Amino acid sequence: MLTRDFMGQTHRVVALPNGQFEYNGKPYSSLTAIACEIAVRLL
User: Fold this and answer.
1) Domain extents for the chain?
2) How far apart are CA 38 and CA 41, in angstroms?
3) pLDDT given for residue 34 in this prediction
4) What Å distances lie between residue 4 and 13, 18, 23, 35, CA to CA?
5) In whole angstroms, what is the distance from residue 21 CA to residue 1 CA?
6) Which one of 2, 11, 15, 34 has the largest count of C-beta atoms within 10 Å of its C-beta?
């Protein structure tokens, strides 16, 4: 599990065995995709 605090919120990402990542129950193909999701939500 990867954990990062950003702008007062803690974000947790799980690395899946198939090479994907899970964030908030949704699979993502890259950490960059998750970072974009977080940035869009905070705008």
Assistant:
1) 2-42
2) 5
3) 97
4) 9, 22, 12, 11
5) 10
6) 34
Pick from 33, 34, 32, 1: which is nearest to 16 by CA?
A: 1
Q: Compute the average pLDDT of residues 23-31.
A: 97
CB 28 within 8 A of CB 20: yes
- Encoded tokens for 13: 């990402």
What does 1-43 look like in DSSP terms, one character per residue?
Answer: -EEEEETTEEEEEEE-TTS-EEETTEEES-HHHHHHHHHHHH-
Res 7: pLDDT:
87
